[in-house]
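Section 4.2 – Deliverable D4.2 (structural model, holo form)

The reporting period included a commitment to supply a predicted holo structure for the target in complex with 2-oxoglutaric acid. Inputs used:
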Amino acid sequence: MTTQLKKKLSETMPQLGEIYAQQGFFSPVSAISETEAKELRQDYEAAERELHGDTDRLALLKAYPNRLLPSFDAATRNRTLVTAAQEILGENILVWSAALFIKEADSTKIVSWHQDLTYWQLNDIKEVTCWLAVSSARKEAGCMKFIPGSHKDKIVPHNDTFDENNMLSRGQEISVEVDENKAVHAELDPGQASFHHGLLFHSSGPNKTEDRRIGSAIRYISATMKQETGDRPMVTQVSGHSDFGHFKVVPPPTGRLLEEEFELCRLDNELKKKLLL
Ligand SMILES: O=C(O)CCC(=O)C(=O)O
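Output (structure tokens):
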């Protein structure tokens, strides 16, 4: 990292490491301009139109925007975001997923209280989610909310609610009491991001606005991590080296909506479904 970049980071994100360790999250981090966020959104929405009616490919696009759109791969490599991730995870960083969480305009969809690392069968907690706002994510749009310090509680019991309104695959929900009064809303403008710990209690409410709420949940992991099962999901490397051999490291996509990328995503998606507890 250049001295200049380090200086800029400490100016925009003073005490990131300290605050993150205390609260389990850090927000907001200004990563790209509103114009760049708008371009990212336009690229994604153009792809949605191009794939209109193809539910299989549309689902893959939502789950793997960084493999199917080079603009999203570039966003995962954004210097500010990667530098913030380095502060938390060290030098050797992979992107395990960058799936989109989209709440349509005027939608009742919610995300229940949960801890991310409950489900992914990773062998350690060296993971941080960077949620990059592609559109505005304010309280009324159902931005994420966090319980400060809850990442220190380790993994608590969760149950499956299978609530159709829940955006999590099985409506997974923390089954111990969560004190909503302690929740802090992470409101973000387009182009801003929040960083949250894999053990942090978090959730989000409905989108009561007339615009879609779109965010890319970039799961940065330390390359030293591995799947408990020994499987090697597809990842990209955004910092340091990845000589540990625990994942299938692929180069950046060379084009937009490439058929070979859809095939890779399809295979990885099957594996991820198997891994998801
Ligand atoms: O987008 C949301 O509202 C929730 C996202 C989330 O739970 C996560 O990124 O871990």
